[in-house]
Amino acid sequence: MGRVQGKVAFVTGAARGQGRSHAVRLAEEGADIIAVDLCENIDTIGYPMATPEDLEETAAFIEKTGQRVVTAKADVREASQLKAALEDGISQLGGLDIVVAQAGVAGMKGQPPLQAWIDVINTNLIGTINAIQVSLLHLKEGASIIATGSTAALMDTHQKNDPGNDPGGMAYVHSKRALSAYVHDLATELAPRGIRANVVHPTNCNTNMLQSEPMYRSFRPDLEKPELKDAEPVFYVQQAMKVPWIEPEDISNAVLWLASDEARFVTGAQLRVDAGGYLKWYDYHN
């Protein structure tokens, strides 16, 4: 216990899923939390977003750990909203030590297609950059930045079977790839200042994003209206280990480690929590 004792963490996308899991796990280890989420639907995203009630529930889980929490409804696509939420949290909690840029959406099969591209890029890429950049001037030596990538960022997509068919889906891949490059270069600039920046790359993770009709259709394009029972057998293709997905807690443990002093010399890493997916699809010798 207490691996991030006395620290303050800023977590985006904190109302449910991985964001909630990360916020609660950090609180369990002693951090106070600034938790933000959009808490509204996005028209092009084919599954419901988190609600204000979800964010309240996250706050209740954090309070049960004995840690303090400040919540705000904020859109990562709008830097001004994030800045206001963060500065309010800092004024109440006294500082900032950890940034977890988690908020993200999957726009597979989103309609209209080009608007889906825009919404995914603005949320996953611009939103991650916004969350980090409103934080930068508040961070001191020993601080840790963690962004959520995806094993999709590591996939070879140069041979597309149907170019232009799913811009929202491709935007997900591009956004995670581009944010990974951003964090890599940022880590280089921050290293002399003693501030670390890393990316965590999950494989299929058991959240509302994965358990959604658009994702089922992505894995089972041969069916008009696939259900979980149709998609789950295909989910295994992403991992070398014999699991269809991992749990949010599996990612949270990696986030906790990167946030803690146990990883004080780990920066610029692209940390895969992928049940061996990379081993299955790639040869590192090449």
Automatic annotation (TrEMBL):
**Keyword field:** NAD, Oxidoreductase
Q: Does the keyword NAD apply?
A: yes
GO: which molecular function terms? oxidoreductase activity
Q: Which Pfam families match?
A: adh_short_C2 (PF13561)
Family, according to the entry, reads as follows:
Belongs to the short-chain dehydrogenases/reductases (SDR) family.
Q: Which PANTHER family match?
A: DEHYDROGENASES, SHORT CHAIN, ESTRADIOL 17-BETA-DEHYDROGENASE 8-RELATED
Task: Output the InterPro entries linked to this UniProt entry.
Answer: NAD(P)-bd_dom_sf (IPR036291), SDR_fam (IPR002347), SDR_subfam_1 (IPR023985)
Q: Which NCBIfam families match?
A: SDR_subfam_1
- The protein's name in its UniProt record: 3-ketoacyl-ACP reductase
Q: Which residues cross the membrane?
A: none
